[in-house]
């Protein structure tokens, strides 16, 4: 058994050590990673120059680029002894001083040829047996089945072929023709037998189905009648369900309508109360004189005075005027706030002296909520007063700053003809009066419009009350109809359940009838096609048998001619075949994946090797098997040859055995190699795909 191989400057490997164990050793890595180099290293270690010559290469082919020398060390266990093979080499060949064989630590041979001879004697293994049986290189697994001379080379029987080279060409042609015709005849026989069996089966099945079909003929009319009744009931049930849903929805809508009407009544009643209060307020609004004309004329005058002359660009007098206006507005607002504040404070003080809720000055009613509102307004105005005081102070500072600039401006051009301050004060007074009048008129318009709606609101209120009454009446009508629909729906649903049971039973039988009818039609077509094909095949088979008889006669004559050359080779072959077949059947039964494969044996068929697999219906030659089954036979035959010729296969190596195969056949190879470990102690396999990981006992990743 191979234990370990160590490489130094060998092909792609600078320095590497790979350990192997019993079972499947999987060397895994991408293309170009040096997987094949490891197997080549084992071959070089075992056979040295013999291997290099037989492989058709040179020692320099195994040397790493740039290195002057390389070395391979192979550790083996055989018959209980530890073997170490060391081979050192350079570009010109093996280095004698660095090539030796050690057994249990003692060197027993040195030099390339002596080490090879000592190993061959101890292992009982020659380079040809190793190359043909134990090391299966990429794409060569089935070569043992594909090349007739392959086995002869392994068995050393190829020398006999030189004696009858001319006859071999003739025989090969006859055998090829016979194999083709025989294969076709076998295929036709199998197909004819299959078709006969199929025709009989189709006839029996067709007769049975026709009987069953006649028994179901009555189901069609019953099914149509029940189906129509069932459909009407379902339609009525659906219509009632839809009507019930509509009525329930109508009830919801009517309830919502009632609720909406009640809400609208409440809203309209509240709005009517508001209108009546508005009418009272309208009568108490004050009358303000006409100030619009004076206000708009003064506003236009101030706007014209504030315009800046076009020729002055570096200074904008409007800024000063604006600052003054803002200061005056703020001062005015402050004065207004103070005036309003003083007035409200007087009101609050008077309210404090009021008796019986009557103003002591005017005798008007003075309610607590009005007093509270005035107190809150006083607090707000006091805050506004403080804010305006700060704003007025800030604006006055801004006006002083701008006035300094304004002096420079007036030194160059005196354009101010209007007293803007007085105009702005008057304008502010007019604006206040104008705004007050607008607010009063706006309020008057609003209250007037509100008062005018009284009649419309009363009319809408009456309409809402009418809608409420109508909705409540319709609720009763819809509720009564809903009860009628629910009662009828219960009755229809009861009838529907009764009919549904019968319908389901008939439906299943009707489906069965349709399926049987379709199956009968299909069987009739299939029967016609099978009978037509059977007639055609019978004619082809008769022609093939006639041609086979002629080819067999020609082959018989050719064999007799070859027999005259001597019987030594056939006798030797038969002796070897018996020894091989004893091992082949044993190995094949261990590796097979089909119970229908009963045995396998290697036969000499008309001068060529044929592996035949016995099945319950006869034997099958290897050429008629699938690719995966041919792999099984090829592997079994290699192991059997190793056992017959070498006494056993101590190890086997496979280089990319799944290359160029599809996934199905790659899986078959994986299974075969896993099963192979029951016969071969150590198996080494390489692949750039990972399919062997699941069966490997050891994974070596490069």
Automatic annotation (TrEMBL):
GO molecular function terms noted in the UniProt entry: ATP binding; metal ion binding
Coiled coil residues, start to end: 171-285, 320-347, 371-561
UniProt-listed Pfam families: SMC_N (PF02463)
Entry annotated with the keyword Protein biosynthesis: no
Domain of life: Archaea
Zinc-hook domain span: 313-407
Zinc recorded as keyword: yes
Binding residues annotated for Zn(2+), in chain numbering: 359, 362
Keywords in alphabetical order: ATP-binding, Coiled coil, Metal-binding, Nucleotide-binding, Zinc
Entry-linked PROSITE patterns: ZN_HOOK
Name listed for the protein in its UniProt record: Purine NTPase, probable
Species of the source: Pyrobaculum ferrireducens
